[in-house]
Write a structure and sequence with these properties.
With about 250 residues, the protein is of the alpha/beta class. It contains eight helices and nine strands. The structure holds NADP nicotinamide-adenine-dinucleotide phosphate.
Length: about 250
């Protein structure tokens, strides 16, 4: 039975991907801080799912990650789906710190642990490390400065681990999945978002990218076009484009 561990599996994209992999007959290790939704899903697939409390910002995160790997008897794929993000034009200190702790420090510690796990067990578990980053990592977005910078960090960290794996002859595939907007608890309920996907649509794209071992997957195709276009915009022009969220109540 193939085994995937999903960190950030209690809601949104991570939860849906976990449910889909369990339905496909995979062994799934689900981790996050809220256990309730994961344990409810576990009741549907008791032989396939193992759940664990894990706070990626906590000192004991790596020990808990290691324990979960043991609980499901190994790991073929890690999917890092934990994340926080805020529209924060006021540059709030608590939001900035939270974003960097989860999306940067927690992210890097978990991916480094997975890298070393696959490096040390490559003969048994040739591995794949996948992460949900964001199209927000491909352009500097002023109203979400910490979030967009953290996503850029994630993309560059994956690139660097890929480089390291080649230098060290370690057999790991890397998959950097970059969604546009997805209707999950991460977004504000009171705002309109362009080209928004449902969780089910986004999860299908994520699963496809993982199973096809795509190196970089921008989802969906509309965002691939936006991404390609906004890369062409020079910084002085970009700095004059006012990107903002629009309240559903605005006329
Ligand atoms: N929604 C979008 O529009 C969108 C677009 C592009 C990229 N993304 C990315 O997709 C990923 C998944 O987000 P989502 O949209 O599915 O949002 P979500 O429903 O809010 O899910 C976020 C997940 O992160 C977990 N998490 C948060 N803080 C954590 C911590 N300290 N330790 C461990 N887990 C933690 C949450 O679990 P607990 O709170 O239970 O710990 C939850 O399972 C994120 O990286 C996000 O940046 C989302």
């Amino acid at each position: 039975m193939k085994k995937i561990i999903i960190i950030g599996a209690s809601s949104g994209i991570g939860f849906q991907v976990a449910a889909d992999f369990a339905a496909m007959g995979w062994r799934v290790g689900m981790a996050a801080r809220s256990l309730q939704s994961m344990d409810t899903l576990k009741q549907q697939y008791p032989g396939n799912i193992q759940t664990a409390y894990l706070d990626v910002t906590a000192e004991d995160a790596l020990r808990r990650f290691g324990d979960l790997i043991e609980d499901i008897d190994g790991m073929d794929i890690l999917l890092f789906a934990s994340g926080v993000g805020f529209a924060d034009p006021e540059l709030d200190d608590a939001k900035t710190t939270n974003t960097l702790n989860v999306n940067v420090v927690g992210f890097a510690r978990i991916l480094a642990y997975a890298y070393k796990y696959f490096r040390d067990t490559a003969n048994v578990h040739p591995g794949q490390i996948a992460a949900i980053t964001s199209v927000a990592g491909t352009k500097a977005i002023g109203i979400a400065a910490a979030y967009s910078a953290s996503k850029k960090f994630q993309q560059r960290y994956i690139d660097a681990l890929d480089h390291l794996a080649h230098i060290q002859h370690v057999n790991i595939r890397f998959t950097d999945i970059r969604p546009g907007f997805v209707r999950t608890p991460l977004l504000r309920d009171d705002c309109d978002y362009p080209m928004i996907m449902t969780v089910a649509e986004a999860a299908l794209c994520v699963e496809h990218a993982i199973l096809k071992q795509r190196r970089i997957a921008t989802v969906d195709s509309r965002w691939r076009i936006v991404n390609a276009l906004w890369r062409l915009i020079p910084r002085p022009v970009w700095n004059h484009i006012n990107i903002n969220l629009h309240s559903k109540h605005d006329s």
